[in-house]
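Appendix C: a fully annotated inverse folding record. The material below is reproduced so that readers can follow the format used throughout the book. The structure is listed first as tokens, followed by the designed sequence.
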């Protein structure tokens, strides 16, 4: 210590005790460890020191097969906004969406008859108008993913004895104890969507299986166990009566009256009464144009993000796609075939050539000339058109 009373720095350091686990207060030590734990959480997920409702919901979902979003998400808002959510994807089917919405509202308000499943809908209409896509979207909206959708192609059950594949073989028969594809799917996923696709191709006796499912919300498997179906939404798709739907598309009331006798020729009246018939209308040219525009917009985004090039899609492309799609009464089903099989091959050939030559692309242009799709590109180096391909398809 000097005359001024100041203590040298080295002596001051010696006089101040180092902070150790013994000298730091428990509160300070806890704060330090908490900060270190938070820093580790930024790098990798560790076990949380607390149990919250999300973790409890995850455990229950794993045990019971109930989707996590059914336990944690405000499902009521999804049901309330269902017309808008479905309408963003399903075009030209406002009547069908409204019918589904009102019945699902009743089911979610728990005002349906006791024991009934959440829904049993027969989606009837022409091919390619959005029946299957509606079911896919509902599986995502209601249950959180397509993993909660069980799809059964009913064309595989054209013989009476094939019902054992759905519910399992009875005692004494080959396959006993293995379970059926339908009953096991419902048992493992009690909250889910079941799609019976192309139901008119199945043997009529196979459909007898669904009387109790649609009425009492239960189904007996091959071993006699009762499978609970009360939280299942059943969808059946069919092309039956599509001519009636096409002819009376502008008059929904007459359509329903004329459609029932056609459906009753295949479905037994008692089974038909247990289902809600939802007609799907043929797609108008305006609706097809909207769907085509959406698919071309997605293609535009893919090309821009992947190749960083300017993309020009001429109006003639839409016109050519429309002319090919409307040649047959397949609705939007032909769209993928026309786009993937006719429009994209010329473009794909040029892209592969550019990628093989390691050439950057500045501009991609798609057009249609003389009933054929064409594609040409401009290189990024000299901004000149160096390659053009035109193919008659």
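Designed amino acids, in order:
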């Amino acid at each position: 210590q000097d005359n001024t009373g100041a203590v040298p720095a080295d002596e001051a350091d010696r006089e101040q005790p180092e902070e150790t686990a013994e000298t730091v207060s428990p509160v300070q030590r806890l704060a330090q460890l908490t900060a270190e734990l938070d820093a580790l959480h930024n790098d990798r997920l560790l076990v949380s020191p607390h149990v919250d409702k999300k973790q409890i919901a995850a455990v229950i979902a794993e045990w019971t097969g109930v989707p996590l979003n059914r336990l944690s998400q405000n499902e009521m808002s999804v049901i309330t906004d269902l017309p808008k959510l479905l309408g963003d994807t399903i075009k030209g089917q406002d009547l069908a969406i409204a019918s589904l919405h009102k019945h699902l509202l009743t089911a979610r308000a728990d005002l349906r008859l006791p024991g009934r499943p959440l829904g049993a809908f027969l989606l009837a209409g022409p091919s390619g108008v959005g029946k299957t896509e509606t079911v896919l979207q509902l599986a995502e909206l209601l249950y959180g993913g397509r993993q909660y959708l069980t799809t059964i192609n009913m064309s595989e059950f054209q013989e009476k004895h094939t019902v054992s594949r759905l519910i399992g073989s009875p005692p004494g028969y080959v396959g006993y104890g293995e379970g059926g594809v339908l009953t096991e799917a419902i048992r493992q996923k009690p909250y889910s969507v079941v799609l019976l696709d192309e139901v008119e191709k199945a043997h009529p006796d196979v459909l007898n299986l669904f009387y109790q499912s649609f009425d009492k919300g239960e189904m007996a498997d091959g071993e006699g166990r009762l499978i609970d179906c009360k939280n299942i939404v059943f969808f059946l798709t069919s092309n039956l009566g599509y001519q009636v739907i096409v002819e009376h598309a502008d008059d929904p009331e007459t359509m329903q009256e004329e459609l029932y006798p056609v459906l009753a020729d295949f479905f037994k009246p008692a089974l038909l009464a247990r289902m809600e018939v939802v007609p799907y209308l043929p797609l108008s040219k305006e609706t097809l144009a909207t769907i085509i525009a959406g698919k071309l917009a997605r293609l535009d985004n893919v090309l821009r993000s992947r190749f960083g090039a300017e993309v020009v899609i001429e109006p003639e492309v839409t016109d050519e796609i429309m002319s090919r799609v409307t040649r047959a009464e397949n609705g939007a089903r032909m769209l993928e075939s026309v786009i993937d099989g006719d429009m994209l091959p010329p473009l794909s050939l040029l892209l592969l050539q550019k990628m093989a030559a390691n050439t950057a692309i500045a501009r991609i242009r798609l057009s249609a000339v003389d009933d054929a799709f064409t594609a040409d590109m401009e290189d990024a180096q000299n901004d000149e058109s160096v390659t053009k391909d035109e193919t008659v398809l």
